[in-house]
């Protein structure tokens, strides 16, 4: 007796996916509910569980195959017994010393032929992330370049890096950090031997292609305009410093800046409903709820999980939800419902050191708020020059729906609420 292994039923917004990896091979025993394969879509990664106990008899869709909802990708033999597993000197590609390797990291390791045991994981629970693999690749390239230079008389041939010269490394994405002043490693490139111009062609992931499509769509269909302001963060910093320890002890979560911005945004959206609205054909849809998207970086790319009914969340609940989003984004555990919808988005480029930017809309939303790096600057207060921790704010909006006056007033209200955070508590 055999049982078909089928692709999970995708939601209506997902039409197909790419088979990322098989966690079992033909001949291996599986138990009902055990993870067999992973399928990447343009939104999230879906898991394919075993439909019954048995032995994996056949795989009909290999890694990299495009599959559709409900399609058969393999077959289980319910009556067979597992073949003896071949002796292996290296761990399975999915784990290294029982540590999970994320799909994007695994693909990169396979492309470069890396041994999973040599890559140290920095993710939650020791998970191996794409950044960890890229770091190991850079170290390997650097080591090889230095050895070549050592073996060359006079320190190296023309075009070859010398030991006493700084050897550039391949570009790696800096990991997001919680500090407002993150330390970002300098991006470097390996110097190729003279006469060579190496290139590496890698297919775009479905998520990256979807991100590209949506960004181009936003710029093509919306009349995007950006207005700027700056906010003195000292009142928020003082309030946060005064209550941070007690807050963390009481609620078990760190008090960050994002919850203040979420609260301020919700209050401003109440006063300017067109900023919380969207265009649907010839109609304007005014949303009577506040679902705030929080842009989060992940090994697969940018994702925007949604804080549902943010107006009803406390500061602690907001911080806990954002922390959970960040952790699940790093381990590719966000569900489709986590990233679907949203009426307004907040993105924080400041964690990477961005001083100012013009964020792009997340269609069909009509506005997005950009936070940036907090930096001490001289400002005028009551006729005196003082040093204050300042942050530039950017509001990109769809001019088809939101007029400049409303956009500017919306941003001014956020500024005023943050510079007098007691108003957020009193809701005035």
Report on this structure.
- This protein is of the alpha+beta class and 428 residues long.
- The chain has 3 domains: 2-87, RNA polymerase II/Efflux pump adaptor protein, barrel-sandwich hybrid domain (OB fold (Dihydrolipoamide Acetyltransferase, E2P)), CATH 2.40.50.100; 96-202, Dihydrolipoamide Transferase (Irregular); 206-426, 2-Layer Sandwich (Chloramphenicol Acetyltransferase).
- Helices cover 27% and strands 24% of the residues.
- The chain has helices at residues 103-112, 130-150, 206-221, 234-251, 258-271, 315-330, 404-419, 422-426; strands spanning 2-6, 16-22, 29-30, 35-40, 45-49, 54-59, 66-68, 72-77, 95-96, 99-100, 224-232, 278-280, 283-285, 292-294, 296-298, 301-303, 306-307, 344-348, 367-371, 375-381, 384-398.
- A hairpin with a 2-residue loop joins β9 and β10 (99-100).
- α5 packs across α6 (315-330).
- It is globular, with a radius of gyration of 25 Å.
**Topology pattern, helix = H, strand = E:** EEEEEEEEEEHHHEHHEEEEEEHEEEEHH
What's the main sheet like?
A: 7 strands, mixed
Q: Count of helical segments?
A: 8
The appropriate CATH architecture of the largest domain is: 2-Layer Sandwich
Contiguous uncertain segments of 5+ residues: 87-97, 144-184
The count of domains is 3
Q: Give the integer mean of the pLDDT values.
A: 80
State the secondary-structure class.
Answer: alpha+beta
Summarize the structure.
By secondary structure, the chain is of the alpha+beta class. The protein has helices at 103-112, 130-150, 206-221, 234-251, 258-271, 315-330, 404-419, 422-426; strands at 2-6, 16-22, 29-30, 35-40, 45-49, 54-59, 66-68, 72-77, 95-96, 99-100, 224-232, 278-280, 283-285, 292-294, 296-298, 301-303, 306-307, 344-348, 367-371, 375-381, 384-398.
